Structures are given as C-alpha cells and as structure tokens.
Amino acid sequence: EKGGYEHFMHKEIHEQPRAYQDTMRGRVDETGKKVVLPDFHMTDEQIKNIRNIQIIACGTAYHAGLVGRTVIERLVRIPVETDVASEYRYRSPIITPETLVIVVSQSGETADTLAALREAHANGAHVLAITNVVGSSIARDADDVIATLAGPEIAVASTKAYTSQLIAFYLLGLYFAQVRGTQTEAQVAETLAAMQALPEQVESILAREGEAKVHAENFSAQKHLFFIGRGLDYAAAQEGSLKLKEISYIHSEAYAAGELKHGTLALIEDGVPVIALATEQALIEKTVSNIKEVKARGGVVLTICYEEDAKELMKSVDSVFTIPKTLPLLTASLSVVALQLLSYYASLSLGLDVDKPRNLAKSVTVE
Ligand code: F6R
Questions:
Q1: Which positions are catalytic residues (predicted)?
Q2: Of these residues, 34, 213, 295, 362, which one is catalytic?
C-alpha cells in the first residue's frame, strides 16, 4: 500500500505532481486559457458583490489559507483575512451578507473548522469549502465545495493535501478575477500556463531529493532552527516550520524576514541554522539584507531560491537548494516541496516515526 516507499509521507510527497494535475483537471477549459468551475453555485452577481473574504482553517490548512489570502488579494483586490478556526469563532467575527467565508480542511471533519463554518452560516455568510473529502461534514454543510483531488492522505503530516489546496486557491482566484474583470484574459492564460508546468517542476525537485537529505542531515542535530521569508515566502516558511516541528521535534519558528530585528535576532548565535526562502523577486534584496543580519551573528543559512539567483545569493549564504522558476504568485507550490523533503529527511535521520509523530492524530475531532 506504500507503493514501494518506506513511509506514507514519502509516497505522498511524490504523489504531488499527480495531485496537482488531478486538482486542475476539468477546471480549465479546452483552450487552456480560462478557469471553469462546473459545480459552482455562486452566481456571477454574488461574486461581484463580495466585499470581503475570511479564510478559516487549522494547522497546515491554515497555512494554505495564508497563501490563499495573498493569491486572492493580488488577483482580485478583495480584502482577505485568514484566521485559525479556534480563534475565529471567539472574536465575534464581523460578517455581512457580502462576506464570503472559505473554510479549508483536508479531512473535512476538523471540529474547530466545522464549528467556525456553522458560526459563519448562522451569521448569514456564504460558505465555500476547500476539502479533500467530498462526503465529509464540512463538504456537506458548505454552500459550495472545491474538492482537492489529492487522494487519501495517510501520513499525519500533510503534504499533498496542502499543495492541492494551493492549486484550489489559484483556480478560485483566477475564476473570481475572470468574473470581476480584475485580470486580463492574457494574464489568466499566462498563470494557467505556468500552473500546467508545475507538476514537471515538482518532479525536477523530487529528482534532487538526495541534496535535500544532505542539508537535513546537516541541521538535524540542532535544537532550534528558524525559517525566514517575505510575502509568499513567509507563508511557505510557516508551513515548512510546522512540518519540521511535527515530525522531527526540532523547535523551529517561522519569521517574517523583516521582523527578525525586532527581537528574534537575539536568539541567533553561532551555528543556529536558518532556512531563508528567497524567491519573491520583488523582495529579494530586502531578504538578502536580513540574511546578512543573520550571518553577522553566526547563523548558518540555507537558502531556497531560483537557479538564476543562486550564484548571487551564494555570496551571502552557506548553502542553497534551488527550485525551478515560476510566476511569483505560484512560488509556494514549489518551495514547500523542498521544505517537505527537508523535514522528511530530518525526521528519518533522527530515527523518528515519520508517519505517526508523537501526540498527534490525523484528524482532530475535538475542540
Ligand atoms: C499538519 C497537519 C495538521 C492539519 C490540521 C487540519 O501536517 O496535518 O496541522 O492540517 O489538523 O486538518 P484538516 O485539514 O483535516 O482540517
């Protein structure tokens, strides 16, 4: 059942190119230039009337929601907030009939997310679910569902479900942009073409997992580690950090690169590993200056960046893991794959139970 892999997590990491394709299939028209969502109930009128969007989820799905926020804001220019479900409910969220609530859940059974969905419904919001289980409670209760077609996810640490959630957000953002006219046809077509290239690009990262293994073995004996990045790199950093904590038990924190100097830099001393994501082209120079702050305190920096930037970045960092270039909007769907591999190999090298980390359950049905 593990299809020749030693662990489900490893298998599921490798299933991502297929999961990307399956999640896109049938949702792009035959010209390849337009998003179609055949089962969508929201009318164009409703979509045009959306005033704000609230994305609610837990854990890894929450991190997908952080990417979703940036994706929708960049493509559609609607204000979006993303919150964890267990906090959302108790802050008397401001919901109007023009609020769209998006809940994200792999299992569709997470108690906090389900309760938040019901709270949003009770307040009159239209609720859209992005879920991997179409018969789940969350899918049943929602007004609209975009199914991620990642296939069953067995490992406790979520991988292919997360990246499929990103694909769902790209599709949703493009669809809204088509309806509201916030992107030209050419822009939508360009993004879709870049999305079609992602599966092969993921393959090319997976083909270099031996490199990721070496990097992971270099830091796995450490007790603390930091991830830094800006923009979508920061969102991806947060997911990378959770993944590492979850299965390697290494304490890690993800920091917005520009925020380090407001306190956390005090923790950087000789030998502390820092994984710096530097793919957001518009922000790369700023990230490099943050990397230099870390290096000046003795931090050991591994950078995740595009091949074309590697040479320049090598002047400031200790090592690089490169990923193929994509559009800025799509970067997390490649960088996270590298981070998943780092976590996997860190856990493996520490001899831990990769698929069933201590204290954790696959689906959390208590609040
Ligand atoms: C981490 C992980 C969890 C889940 C979270 C939400 O790898 O899997 O953080 O993402 O418990 O679960 P779902 O998506 O099923 O609602």
A1: 362 (for fru-6p isomerization activity)
A2: 362
